[in-house]
User: Fold these one by one.
Assistant:
Number 1:
Amino acid sequence: MSLLSVSGLGIEFGGVRAVHDVSFSADPGEIVSVIGPNGAGKTTLFNMISGVYLPGSGSITLAGEDVTGMSPHRLAERGLSRTFQNLQIFQQMTVLENVIAGHHLHERGSVFADMLHLPSSRRRSKAAEVGAMALLERLGLARAALQEAGSLSYGTLKRLEIARALALKPKVLLLDEPAAGCNAVETEEIDRLIAEVAAEGVAVLLVEHDMKLVMRISSHIVVLDHGEKIAEGDPAAVSRDPRVVEAYLGAHAKEAAHADG
Amino acid sequence: MRLSTKSATLLVLALLIVATPFFFPSAYYYRVGALVFVNGIAVTGLVILTGYAGQISLGHAGFAGIGAYASALGPTHLSLPPSLSVLLGAALSALIAFLVGRPILRLKGYYLAVATLGFGILVSMVLANESGITGGPDGVQVAELGLRDLLASLGLKLKAPVFWYAFSGVVLLVGAWLALNLYDSPTGRALRALHGSEVAAKTVGVDVPRVTLQAFVISAVYASVAGSLLALQNRFVTPDIAGYMYSIELVTMAVFGGAGSVFGAIFGAGILTLLPQALTFLAEYEQLMLGLIMVLVMIFMREGLVPSALRLIRGRGA
């Protein structure tokens, strides 16, 4: 049985089918990429899996448990973590505090202990801070630890979101365009990081437009078009699939041709 | 050595509380000072709700009213000592905040503002209309707290205004300490996270309805204690204490001084309590000046007086 499996998932917005009858699954250590043209329903799919949207139909199973329609914080308790396409950073907090907040499930406790600054509260905070610092080191953000997050560059904030999502020690990690807006060096770092995280046994779900990145690291690719799954398979098979080429990769090729002309 | 924000805030507050009386021209200023501290206590609660968690309440005077009337009615109706009545008021405010907060904290922004406004008006109407219990719009006498007599019997004789200045100052310091502890704690981070991005807070596991309710209840207890202290030092209370004008004054103080910072909000409470007194020489232009100052601060120092000033100083320093 798979760690995460999605079956017949669909949602409508005002009668428009944004996602329809999508099924796939992910195992520990796998990198499953969801690709497709803009508006294909990739982010909507992520929002359903992470509990932000309530699916109209279908079901989601996480580690054998039906988690369809479960709120995001309960999914977080079950080991599902995500990043956002349009950044969702805690702007007024420092970089370090953002990642400590990512440890919320490990550091939360009695509000009375927190207000009275009791040793138990300090211990929880300290442990979360140590964990957060280690993650910042790992993502090359340690030097910015005490800066206000709102003052950082876009590419840095992308990495900060990944650090925050990893703070949860997730079993399933959803990354929504982690390399968007990043330069080549940053993209390569994110590439390496995703592979590392997967190697540790995390099931990674990836939405990404950078096809080179997707083809290089995915174990498995799901292709969406107009909200429906039109193909699925390993990178080599998907890139040869005529429907995929027509719906997506072909369009990219055309864009490239236009750019050249 | 660098002081943490917490130690610096508490140190500056304590110094101000101890040192300002040396500049008082008359004993009347102890009363003004105590009023500043009482407002500061209520506003510190709003820092937790508004500054940390990003939720607005235009009804917190309702909790001040509950605290004030608890300290007035506890001794007469339940034969409780006034000190226990204060605690009873705080517990009652917490319970009511818990029951009211559950449904209305699901609302956001101005919907929440209107709902809390309605709650405050409701409390003040109950206090004004249930005259059999509360004494109605004319108000009700409040018993002596008794702590001053206790201190006198121990050899520390204080005049009433001096005692209330000192006592309110100590309560304010304790309230500020608790709020500053919360800021840098797991719960405080969860509140500030949901202020920054509610959806991201949820995805890191923050139970948003639960922590916003906690913030609402805590801030209600602050308002309740402030209301009790005000009633006890005036020895008299009317339903005006729960009126919406006082709710709005409290929010204005917090935002004016800087809702995100404990010191800022207390500073705002100080300025807006003192300014009307300082502007009395302008006679009929007093309200006009007060309004103008508030508008200008909000236009040019949107984060509030203290955070904007600190940013300016740090910006220069770097």
Number 2:
Amino acid sequence: MDRDGVAVSGVGAVSPAGLGVHALWRAIEDRRVLTGPVTRYDLSGYPTRQAAEVPPGAVAALDSLVPPHESLAARYLAAATLEALGDAGLPAHRRRGRLGLFVGTVMGTRPLLDRAIGRGPLGVADRAWARPDELLAAVRQVVTVDGPAVLLAPGCSAGNEAIAAGAAAVASGEVDVAVCGGADELSLEVFAFFTSMRALAADAIRPFDAGRRGTMPGEGAAVLVLERAERVAARGRKPLARVLATASAADAHNLTQPHPDGAGLIATIQTCLDRARVEPDDVDWVCAHGTGTPANDAVEARAVAKALGGRRRPVLSSVKGQLGHAEGAAAALEAVIGVRALAYDLVPGNVTLVEPDPECAGVDLVEPAGRRGPVRRVLSQAYGFGGAVCTVLLGKGNPDAR
Amino acid sequence: MPASVTVCGAGLRLSEVDDLASLARRLRSAPAPAEVRRFAAPDTVLAPVEREVYGPVEPRVPARAGTRGLRSLPHESLLALGAAASTPGKQGPDDTTAVVWASSTAGLPEYATVCAEASTLEPGFVAPALGPASAHNGPAATVSIRLGLAGPNLTLTGGATAGISAIAEAMRLIAAGDARAALVGASATVTRWSLTAAQDHLTPAEGAACLVLDPAGGSGIQLGECHRTDLVRATARVIQAAARPQTRPDGLVVSTSDFGLVDALASGQPFPVWHVERALGDLGAAGGFLAVVGAAALCAATGPLAAPRPLPDAGLLAGPGLLPDAGLLAGPGLLPDAGLLAGAGLLAAPGERSEPNPIRPTKILALAVEPCGSTASLEVSSS
């Protein structure tokens, strides 16, 4: 399987920064923290009321872009897909070549049920909340899908697993175009059980900070269009990036806690390096899972330091301090940011970092301002409840820039 | 993707189905009577309903999966664990085996219960253990953690094609080197919550099934390359395959909620067509997976009669009840396609032991079709 030839030809996003990849990247460059008070739900009574929402104006603007659907996540996904196909120069219908859809999610359409949460017995208004396939319904209305339509829900590694599945489908020739991404909307159910688990931060998500207190839910969708590099070139376009390698594993340890040694993460990082035939020092940015929870970040930093031990400490930051944790969309959003980082030679910073955790000393935590300099390879890792781990290694679109 | 993989074992937790032989019989028989059960959802506006369903199914989790903490696991995770742990496999930790699971319903009652509690309890009093189980990946995570399988861990959800795609993704992980083998399965449960989306013309069902897949190399039951496309192309493939003796399957197992489509596919075909939802009920994503398991069961049923040599995995498949009893298969009324199979030289007369047929292996196509027109198909054969 020739993964080396799988290129990213287009990207799209809906995020707490608004509609579009441009808005997302501007927020990253401008170091804006997009978490804040939740407006969509009544959280009075909850000790913590902050999350990262797609702004109401952006939600309203979806009306002019995509068909109506009860699920916001389904509409986010449709909007991001249309943007990504447009970016790739591919029509949504009447294309040459077979198109497959590979989408990751954690909760899918289930948050539709959240709208019935109030005072007293729970109302149950519709059927779509119990039909996971509805997540793809809006995309199907705006894009002709004549290849696989795969909905992956392995936990918070979902976005990366979708990229891995799509890249393999392109490499094997099963599809000519793989629309890969992730989507989730803000879930009051997640907010409720994270509150019970005392896993929510009160003021900000501070990944890898000694004072980190927890995470905050986020939402959105992000899509990468994958094709064989020759196909992109044949259309007279240049790849935005390349998928150099992907790898999957599991911790097989605990439903909610990462393996204390980061076993699955280490395995996937090493496999990615082996497959891409690159050395640890060749990775210019590790886009961390970095949820800001006490349980995660130290384990992750130690695992990355061990897996990428080279002449220098691995350069690492998490964008969740800015974007919140968008669950199934998180890794896809991070991959899109990785594509932009490769294009603009900017390593995003740990924007909310105040006091680096000494337990994370094995990695080079990027200062809040970020770093300008050559970015040739980005390693993006994702994992979550259940123990599934998936890591993606991206490289520049121009292979000569390796 | 590898061209094919070998099925090294199977585990089943289905209503009135104990093994591959009884699954083959169930597919071939008239629909079994379903049990009327009452479903309620306390603390909600949903009124209790009574509905015919296939179930309940007992998880019967083997000791291999451990006994501590089982009571805290969701029912669907227990069904998955029961099916997975009953397959033959290495004991102890294993970082080379992937777990790939498909389900439409995993985590659904837990999600709804958290919502109901959030409606009726003060913030912060929702049961914290329910939340992590309210996503789709509970069965795959439970199987991985309980059996110590640290290979890739994937969950697919959606409609019937997810069940066949789970096999395709497992084959992809094996081909890429992420795993050397895979435990692939699917499950479904029936609750008051799942019934909000149930279709009136189908009988909801619960259960779980899984297969152990190894890269091809031996003979036995083989799973071929998966084809995932739209309904027009999938139908064309079936018609083209049927038109030529070299490619014609010996049967077709379909998972779809559309009974008319099954009738149309069966019309004029020179081979029998079996319908998962008609025989086993509506299992959502697990329906597509059971089309493959059903095809494997039908192949296994004819395999010992047709195979020129013993299956190398016979020891694995010969666990309690996994290999069919030839006498049972040859009994009256159990093989509606007996004429066809006998005509093809695959089936002996009742009570008569067949001579091996070294020329023609059994080949059955499994097909899943969703209402949106998405399809997945896979060829199952015995060699």
Number 3:
Amino acid sequence: MSETDKVADMTFVPEEFALRDEVRWLKSEDLNLFSFIRQSMNKIEPAYVSTYPPSECGIATFCKDVATSVAKYTPFSKPTIVAIKREHEIEPYERVVRYQILKEDRQSYLDAAKYINDSSIDIVNLQHEYGIFGGDDGEYVLDFLHALKKPAVVTLHTVLHSPSPNQKRITQEMGKMCEVMVVMVKTGRNILLDGYSVDPAKITVIPHGVPNVHRVASSTVKRALGMADRQIISTFGLINRGKGIEYVIKAMPKILEKYPNAIYLVLGETHPGVRKHEGESYRNMLTEIISELGLEEHVRFNNRFLSLSELVRYLCATDVYVTPYLSKDQISSGTLAYALGCGKATLSTPYLYAEEVLADGRGILIDFQSPESVSDTVIKVLDDKDLRESLESAAYHYARRAAWFNVAISYLDLFDRVLRRSGVIKEEPTL
Amino acid sequence: MEMDLVINVRRNGAVPIIDLSGEVDAYTSARFREAMVELIDGGSANLIISMLKVDYIDSSGLGALVGGLKRSTENGGRIVIVCDNPQIRKVFEITGLEKVFPIFEAEVDALGMIS
């Protein structure tokens, strides 16, 4: 086996379909045991309302991950995705997408609610970010919730400290109409209580899920990537101006004085929504900075969508992961969660999500818009092997609780509690 | 790569007990399955799985258990679980598998049932 194959094998993230597969095999091999298990197992049928892959958006990825993870524990249930898409866009969705909402078509929201009301769906999990729904600040989502007669759990991907009056109204209305609001960190709960007066009994915290990755020594993976002698700093995700990548690039000259082989990997393509409005102007600006600073050999873009295994491979090779984001209000970050899940030494600007998940020695906070803060902290982490290992270990063990298989159990538990409270009676399902 | 599951097999009288320690997940469940199959094919259809030291179990781990149960029942046996970790018990409770696998907090009770 070649070195590259070995590393691909080590960083491979295995699928976990075993429970569903085992049950399917049982049906043909041992009908009595199959029937017994079918009678015994949980049969919650959730619907998820969200953007959905192949739409390129963090919330779409999140929705797929949570729906897939929950389904792995419920082999006798049939999950439904109600996908929000832009009009005139044709998305080659998977079959699990059984209904589509046209983002700017108000009637479409009412039709989707009716579809769910008339179906065997037990509960709805709606992924919320203002921008993914139609109307001002995505207010059409309220039409959907008003018309919905099934219990709803709303997962909030944005909780603004200083919302506009309309944004505040929408969140408060959602809080009244849904059974539970899920936030990913305690800070989000506090903001909902203080700024939006949401009923505390309706708020629950479930962390952002992370892939189930077993740790691999970065040196082994670096060799396979042809970067054995490099100190790797990385950032990944859909690129846009809010990422603050220029501040890490500007930090590189000082880092290179101490570590001449250091390289900064920017993994991911430009956010499709951003590309539509401004093309690649942000990336072009970054390229100009790289050129001005003569960093062509020390900053590398990987401007494409990366598979989970590819992403994990790059993260496993990383020495220092950075989220240099610019918005203090950011209340979740899939990329930061993933870096913790891979057990990386992580630096971040102190946006709300980062402040909480990197506390207690799980990461280091850096100043907003400060190349000096980036360079000083990166050098500190690269200099101190014990510090790096301590950060890596603390991050990994913290994030194990947030592995998708654990997050799925939290969602299933929540769905179960909501349904019991709502007195929903379920019919016997068929596989 | 860290392989975060330690599997140890011992016997209490005629009853084999598989002690699991660590994480039963997509990376490790195949080894767990092999351990069960080996014992069952070796004539020990009744098994006790001790999960007292299990930190996490995912759907692969549950799948391995269902596969083991099939093999065990084919041979006239049963699988009983020992577990006092509320997080792990929650997984069995929320999936409904607690109705499929008898679960005891203490090994002595599991032995009492299987004997």
Number 4:
Amino acid sequence: MPQIFTASADTRLRAIALILAAGILGGGMFIGGYMNSTYTTRIGWVQNQPVPFSHEHHVGGLGIDCRYCHTAVETSARAGLPPTHICMTCHSQIWTGAPALEPVRQSLASDKPLEWNRVARVPDYVFFNHSIHINRGVPCVECHGRVDQMPLMMQAKPFQMQWCLDCHRDPAPHLRPPDQVTRLDWTQWEADKDHEVYGKLMVKAFGIEPKHLDSCNICHR
Amino acid sequence: MKFFCLILPLLLTACDNLDHQPRDDHYKRTSLFADGKVLQSPPPGTVGRDDLALEAALTTRPPLTQALLERGRERYDIYCSVCHDFSGYGQGTVPSRGFPHPPSFHIPRLRAAPPAYFVDVITHGHGVMYSYADRVAPADRWAIAAYIRALQVSQDTSVTALSDEERTKLEAAHDQ
């Protein structure tokens, strides 16, 4: 009776098993690394824009409040992209001949909106509402980062479900006084020991229930 | 082949995970309207459901309360302080970069102006100042006008007119 397995069969089986294990492990690591890379999360990637608008200059330098331009943020799901009219409130008088602002003047003259490219975006199956977060005191900086230090706008946080849930399951440390919601530098506030209980008190005062905040239908409809 | 055709849609749907759905969101481009915008302006002559209420809010001055003043301070700091500065002298950061200086709120003409005057300027603009009607709701315009009056009083009151308690408070705030 002939042998079913050759002398080297055992070695080959071991080699295949090893390659398979390495492949699964390596593949898993690649996918994990890809999902967490800035290429996927878009952290730190600058988008092309029709006008090189600098938040660093307007927010950091001039101290203009976020709500001066993003007027709908307190009352609507969307923060609101400023219409050209708002840009021209100042730029009808200053930098009137600047070449960089030519698209803004064109937009006003032709009554066509500027076509900005979206920086902070959630997938279409996520229904994010700005107003409730602002009114409960989740500061702008919590999701958008230090925009006053961004000469060109970029995403600062991963905007993945894991990241949303981190806060929804434990909102207390992320809450700040709603009347200072557009403040960007909280280091001094956080250093104050008296503020440690603030979040916990506000969770109680606003009736925020973390056990309901991670229900699917809070964000997905 | 049949098997491949069956599995193809499954493979393709997995690409996007419904991340981009074929719907017309705010601020997006659309083929529905000639000008390509999803957000359409109402046709001329449209009367909004809340137009009457907004108009009433603009013509009737709300009662002066602590809450109104605090709302006024918040709105003033957001929309006015960039030019008029936090105390109302017209030395904001934007004029310091070349925008024409607005008048100080502490000149006799503006001290004598009624609150309705400030509401009117916010609504219609004045000189190089654009209208803020799209940014400040009618009720908030009265709140800002009330806060401007508070600023005027604050800059035109002698320290000797304050009570002892108020003076201690002022000195404590100054020392900070």
